Amino acid sequence: xxxxxxxxxxxxxxxxxxxxxxxxxxxxxxxxxxxxxxxxxxxxxxxxxxxxxxxxxxxxxxxxxxxxxxxxxxxxxxxxxxxxxxxxxxxxxxxxxxxxxxxxxxxxxxxxxxxxxxxxxxxxxxxxxxxxxxxxxxxxx
Length: 141
Fold this sequence. Notes:
Elements: H1 4-27, H2 46-62, H3 67-103, H4 119-139
């Protein structure tokens, strides 16, 4: 049987990415954008969903007093902080740089502006991860 830890990570990631396609479709009036399957940013955060799903299974399997749970908590906090603070800031800077290049009518190839996450997107990913982690824990028992 597949490890519940890996199953939680993979399931949360896939569900979050598929959710992005569905949410984008609703926002854009039934236009399906399959780029959402692999694009960074958007609702919900796949990174947050995956690390919180793992954190949940670790906590339920081994207990919240273990060193492994503490390590998973730290990892989840770093990933979610990075998504909101670092990646989001970098994405906003990328958009500004693209805008400046366009204004200058430069022949420089426009760089890609990878998008980070809004706090709500990270929170939604974390809640999704919690639900997936709980489900995987009880399914694999």
